[in-house]
Prior knowledge:
By secondary structure, this protein is of the alpha/beta class. It has helices at 14-29, 40-43, 53-56, 65-76, 94-102, 128-142, 164-183, 191-203, 217-220, 237-253, and strands at 2-7, 34-39, 80-84, 116-123, 146-153. It has a five-stranded parallel sheet, sandwiched between helices.
Amino acid sequence: MKILxxxxxxxxxxxxxxxxxxxxxxAVIDNTVKFEEIHLSELNIPFCIGCSMCFRxxxxxxxxxxxxxxxxxxxxxxxxxxxxxxxxxxxVTAITKNFTDHLAFLLHRPRYFYKKALIISTTGGVSxxxxxxxxxxxxxxxxxxxxxxxxxxxxxxxxxxxxxxxKKKAFKISKAFYMDLKSKKLHSPKIGVLIPFxxxxxxxxxxxxxxxxxxxxxxxxxxxxxxRYAPGIPLPIYKMAIGRIIFQIGKYLSPKMIVTYxx
Length: 263
Ligand SMILES: Cc1cc2nc3c(=O)[nH]c(=O)nc-3n(C[C@H](O)[C@H](O)[C@H](O)COP(=O)(O)O)c2cc1C
């Protein structure tokens, strides 16, 4: 089993310390797990400049593709991803936000349907849960099948010592994450996840090659025609029906709200 760890903090501080604890805990359960680390602060990814090339033409036209594509390949090549992100001003760190901005196009063209995530954050006093929750809101839109959250109040700047209570909480969540990865069980998506999947799929016909404002959405969704969610993911009949309604709404709305761009 391969677990990719993305360190979205600008240093190896309290959150990294907790992440190392989690790494050790998982290794105790299964010493064959292979970890790979990406430290975003070492990559010096320039800020997303908002050119929207990823949305329109595809990621290969992103001016920062050489930084982003290798990370996406690593996500593709692992079973699960651990995101390790400090709480700065009640939110994710700037380098994490910059990274997720570069992947915002995944909401239009999701793909990581068979991946699961564990999101770890520490805070001085409050809002670690806002950090983990904000990523747990974003990742299912990219396709992630399940997100586990480990928010911890460290009450410290750079001198955090995990308490026994914190270690127990970390173990409980890490074990649940590991067991879920091992089981390869695929979870049914929440209704909120069906909205972008079905809306963008329905709206893509306005953006097919040759249309006035064609984008990669017009190409991407062809492989999901007639599907209300990704193949192999359990979708009970009522969610299928909800997906169909969302799809119909998207079909109705799409000609009325075509997104333009400067040529
Ligand atoms: C720039 C900055 C912003 C912070 N913002 C908050 C905050 O909003 N709420 C809070 O309780 N602690 C805040 N803290 C404290 C950190 O969240 C806390 O020390 C956390 O454990 C840092 O994790 P790290 O060492 O992995 O970076 C902040 C610290 C820094 C340096």
